[in-house]
């Protein structure tokens, strides 16, 4: 198609220069802030921020064919949208909304600048081989607790498909459209909105009363829980576990993302012990105790070790049936 038929871009002045915005984009979407950052280490953008995505249709996270990653969050300064792209070893970041500067100020930490993989020493051939193939793995640190805690609560004792569906319905139904030019990206509800979701909406999303009640308890003390992002992982987990309904599985899944915790190994998982057992000892029947024993050489770095094992693709073939879908009407 001739270029004369293409919409003429407008320009908006931003920190660091100008950016082209297609005609027809709402005015508020053009208030973009930008930053570039060249990490002093190899970075695999997708592998590093991938754990923040809750399923292929996560309304707060999107990847695009050009390799960009889009993420919408509720920051301490308000809703924000972040777009990341890695070009020739340099991260190009754009951000929109009240949380834009908060996002950009913490960009290196989000992408693993506070992570120290040099402390990790592979003790198994599989782990060593994967570490060599994945030098760009860094442990992300979002500095945000509730956005990882709530979807982790939704994942308790159900299939991942059920949990992803619940997250999708609740965020789209009760969150708000993310600032910026990308449609169908949403910021999760604020704590007060979570507390006002009626019981039938939880039921429609497939969330039983136990998980819904845990989320409501967390929302009531959201500010105290968010403080955990600045704590050491052990103390952060202890604070989260003061909330009834939040145990070791949920706290580990949260601080892995919010605090970049390299040793927060997930226990109580249906599949992880068998995966670790199969990879390190050819024991697909391993339980939590056996998994922790196998991970003893990685004390202080056990979460990183499990990430590498999962990235290796060396998982046991399924023999047992998957977890059955839950009918909350029977609970």
UniProtKB/TrEMBL annotation:
Region (Disordered): 1-21, 48-68
The entry's keywords: DNA damage, DNA repair
Record has Iron as a keyword: no
This protein's record includes keyword Plastid: no
Residues annotated as signal peptide: none
GO MF terms, alphabetically ordered: alkylated DNA binding; DNA-3-methyladenine glycosylase activity; DNA-7-methylguanine glycosylase activity
PANTHER family found in the cross-reference section: DNA GLYCOSYLASE, DNA-3-METHYLADENINE GLYCOSYLASE
Protein's name according to its UniProt entry: DNA-3-methyladenine glycosylase 2 family protein
Organism for this UniProt entry: Streptomyces alboniger
């Amino acid at each position: 198609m001739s270029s004369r038929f293409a919409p003429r871009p407008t320009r908006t002045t931003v920190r660091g220069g100008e950016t082209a915005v297609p005609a027809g984009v709402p005015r508020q979407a053009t208030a973009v802030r930008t930053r570039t950052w060249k990490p002093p280490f190899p970075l695999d953008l997708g592998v590093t921020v991938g754990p923040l995505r809750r399923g292929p249709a996560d309304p707060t996270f999107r990847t695009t064919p050009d390799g960009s990653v889009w993420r919408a969050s509720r920051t301490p300064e308000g809703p924000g949208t972040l777009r990341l792209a890695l070009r020739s070893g340099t991260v190009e970041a754009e951000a929109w909304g009240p949380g834009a500067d908060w996002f950009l100020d913490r960009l290196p930490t989000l992408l693993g600048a506070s992570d120290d993989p040099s402390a990790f020493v592979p003790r198994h051939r599989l782990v060593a081989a994967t570490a060599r193939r994945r030098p760009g793995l860094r442990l992300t640190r979002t500095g945000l607790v509730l956005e990882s805690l709530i979807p982790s609560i939704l994942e308790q004792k159900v299939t991942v498909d059920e949990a992803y569906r619940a997250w999708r319905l609740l965020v789209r139904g009760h969150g708000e459209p993310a600032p910026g030019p990308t449609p169908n990206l949403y910021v999760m509800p604020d704590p007060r909105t979570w507390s006002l979701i009626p019981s039938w909406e939880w039921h429609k999303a497939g969330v039983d009363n136990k998980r819904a009640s845990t989320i409501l308890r967390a929302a009531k003390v959201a500010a105290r829980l968010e403080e955990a992002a600045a704590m050491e992982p052990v103390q952060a987990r202890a604070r989260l576990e003061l909330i009834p309904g939040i145990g070791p599985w949920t706290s580990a899944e949260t601080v892995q993302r919010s605090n970049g915790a390299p040793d927060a190994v997930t226990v109580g998982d249906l599949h992880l012990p068998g995966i670790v057992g199969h990879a390190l000892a050819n024991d697909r029947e391993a339980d939590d105790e056996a998994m922790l024993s196998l991970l003893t050489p990685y004390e202080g770095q056990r979460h990183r070790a499990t990430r590498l094992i999962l990235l290796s693709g060396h998982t046991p073939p399924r023999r047992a049936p998957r977890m059955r879908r839950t009918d909350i009407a029977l609970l």
